[in-house]
C-alpha cells in the first residue's frame, strides 16, 4: 500500500498545476454579464455552465492523463524507473491510473467549486441543473474512470506500434460483429421488452445484456491494463501483446457468451412458457397462437403457433412493447395462418407478410414478397386463406396471397382509431369485402364523444364500392361488435355512457332490435353460431342475456360476480362462461370459475374453479378451441364438457 | 556466498534468441563486469536479474530468490543504475530522493546530498534539464542511497564524457572501499573498470564465451611477437598448444594472441625457435575482449 500511495502522490504532485483548471470555474460567473445574458436566471445559467465545463474539463483530462500516465512512460522507456524500485507491479499500475482518475475528478470538482460556493449545491444551486440525481453523482466519476482506463488501453496500443495492432483491429471488429449480430438477433425476435405483466423492472433484454456487457468491457480493459503492466513490466511490445491477449480474450469470451445468450433466449419453446398472456385459436382445426413470458428469459415474450394435437409449433414474431398485438390471423378453415414480421429492427424497417401452411406436415413457413412500410393495424385472412386484407397508411388493400396481386384498394378517410373491422363475405374464396369504419366526431375524447359507423362493401372482382351506410353511435361510442361473418352489427346508442345496445343489419343498415337487458348493458359479443350475448351490470352481480341472430331475447343468466368472460360453444346450445367475484385479470386463471350454460334449457353446470376459457367466443362451435381453458398452475387444458375429462395440452412452468 | 546467479538462462524475443544457455555466478563482495558488443544480450540479462524480463528458460537468482517472482522485495536491497537515465523528467533530485526514500527500508539522505554536491549536480533543477552526465550521477546517487547489498549497473557511463565517467567509477570505487558492496555491471568502458573488477564475463550473440577471474584471464591471455621462420605462421611449432585466438602477419614478423599461455607451454615454443624467441607482452582487458569477440563465434559448447 505504501508503494501505491507513493506512486499516486508522486503523479498527483507532478501535475499539481492542473489545479489551475479551477480558473475555468470562474467563467460561468461571466455568462450572465455578457450582452444578452440572462440575468434573471443567473444562478441557473451559472449552474448549467459550471456542470458543462466540469464535464468537459474532467473528460479531457481523463482522456489525456489516462493515455499518458503509463503509455508515455512505457513508450519513452521511463517505466523502468519504477520497476527498478521495490514497488509491486500492481502498485505502479494502480497508483498511476488512480492519480489520473483523481486529477480528472479533482479538476472537475474544482471547476464546480466557485458555483457551488456562491449558489450552493441544493435546489437553488447546482442541483437545479443536475438532472440525474444521486445516481448521476456516482455515474459521473464512473464515466471518468472508464475514460481513464480506455484512454490508457488505446494509448498503449497506439504507442507500441507493434504488429499486435492488427490483432486489436481484428479483435475490435470481431467483438463489434458478435455483439451487433447477437443484439440484432434479439431485437428481430422481439426479445427486447419486459414491460409485461409479471415483470416489474423496466429493463429490456437487450439492454440487460448490454448492461452486463458494458461493465464486462470495462473490467476487461482494467484487467488487460493491469496484466500488461504487472506481467510485461517495461517491455512495450510484450506489454501490448499481453494487453491485447487479455483484453480480447475477455471481450470475445463475453461477446461469444452474449451470442450464446441470444440463441438461447430466442430458442424458447411453448413448454418454456411460465404464463399464457394470449391465446387465439383457429376457427377450425387444432392450431392456436399462444404467447407468454418464457422461463428465465427476462424480457422475452415469445409467441408460437401450436398444434394442440401433435405439439408441433412454429415460432412467430412477438411485438416487443405489447406482445398481444398483432396475433397471427387464421383462415376460416384453420389451414393457414398469417402474420407480419419486421425485416429489420422493429419500428425502423418494413414489415413482411409471413404465412404458415398449417395443413402440411411441419407447417412450413413462407416469407411472402409482400412488404409494408409501416405496420398495418388490421390483417384479415379470407375463409380459405387465399386472400388477405390490410390497412396500410390510410388505405385498405386486398391482395391475393399466392401471387401478391392487389385485388382492390380503398382509402380509409376516417380516424385510424379504432381500427376498422373487415370481413370477407361468404365462404371459400370470397368476392366481397365488408368494411366497418368508425368515424368519431370532435371531441374525440371524453363523455361527449360521438360518431357513426360507416359500412361499405367492396367488390373484389371489379373494385367497385357499394354506397356507404351510416349508423350513428352514442356518446360512449364505440362500444360495438361485428358478427363473425359481417352480417350484423351491435352498437351502443342513446345518451350517456350506459345507453342501450342496438342490433343492425350490416348490409342495409336496418334497425333489427333493441337489445334490452336487465341492469346496465356493459358489452356485447357475437357467439360463433350468430347469437348475441350481452353482459350487463346489476348491483347484485352480472347478467348475461342471450339474443337470437335477429335480436329476439332468448334467455338470461344471473351471476353473483363482478366479472364475466365468454368462452366458446363446445356443443350447440352450450356456452362456456367464466366468472370472478373480483375485477380479475384474464391472464391469471386463479380467481376465475368456469361453468357451462345450456342455452336451450337455461340450466348451468360448474366446470371448476381456477379455470377460464382460453379462446373466446369466436371459436367455431364444437371446435377444439372451444374446449380450451387456462387452468391455474397448469397451463392450457382441454376440457370435455360432457365427461368432464381434462387433458393438459400445454403445461406452463409458472 | 553467491549473491547473484543465473543458470542456463535463455531469453527469446519472438524468433530471436537474445540469451542462450547463460550461466554465471557472482559471490558476495565481488565486482563482476559483463562485457559484450551492442546487441550481445547484456541488457537482456540485466532485465532478467531485475525481474523486468521473464526468462524463456533457465533461471536467475538474487540473494537466492527469483527476481521475477519476488522483484519488489529483492529490489529493496539492490541499487540499480539503468543504461538510460529514466527518472521522471519533471522531478528534481531532491524530489526524486524524497520519493525513493519512502520506498526503501533505509535511505542515506545525507550521503546522497553530499554525493550530489560532490558531483556539483543542482538538486532543485528538474531531472529533464540536467546534462547527461549529471543525470547519470543522480541515478548512481539514488542507487547508492539505500546502502544496497548489490549494485546493478547497466552500462552506467554510456554516452558520458570522460570526466563524468571518471566520477561515476570513482564513486563506485569509494563505495566498494567503504562497504564492500557486490557489483554487477555491464560496460563498454573496459579501461575504466579494469582496475576494479574481480571477474569478467564476455557475451557474444547471446552466448557467454567467457566467465573468469580477471587475474586468471590476464594470466592466460598474452600477445606473442616473433620473427617469421619461413613456415606458415599458424603452424609454428608449439603455438597451437598456447591456444591462439588471433594470429596476424606483420611486416616485421608474426603477432599472435594466445588464450592458453603458461610458462611450460611457452618454453616449448621458445625452444623450437632458438635465437628468434618470441617476445611476450600482457594484454589489457580491452585487448582481451577484442581478441575474444573479434574471432568468429564459437561452436556449440566451445569456450575460450
Give a description of the structure:
The complex is a heterodimer of chains A (654) and B (304). Chain A has 10 helices and 32 strands. Chain A has 654 residues and is an alpha+beta fold. In chain A, the strands form 8 sheets. Chain A has a 4-stranded antiparallel beta sheet with strand order 1-2-3-4, with no helix packed on it. A 4-stranded antiparallel beta sheet of chain A has the order 5-6-7-8, with no helix packed on it. A 4-stranded antiparallel beta sheet of chain A has the order 9-10-11-12, with no helix packed on it. Chain A starts with a helix and ends with a strand. Mean pLDDT of chain A is 85; it is low at 194-202. Chain B folds into 2 domains: 2-214, Rossmann fold, CATH 3.40.50.300; 222-282, Alpha-Beta Plaits. Chain B is 32% helix and 27% strand. Chain B contains 10 helices and 13 strands. In chain B, α4 (109-119) runs antiparallel to α5 and α5 packs parallel to α6. The longest helix of chain B is centred in the middle third of the chain and has 18 residues, at 162-179. Chain B starts with a strand and ends in a 10-residue tail after the last helix. Chains A and B meet through α1 and α5 of A and α2 and α3 of B.
Summarize the structure.
The complex is a heterodimer of chains A (654) and B (304). Chain A is α+β, with helices and mostly antiparallel strands and 654 residues long. Mean pLDDT of chain A is 85; it is low at 194-202.
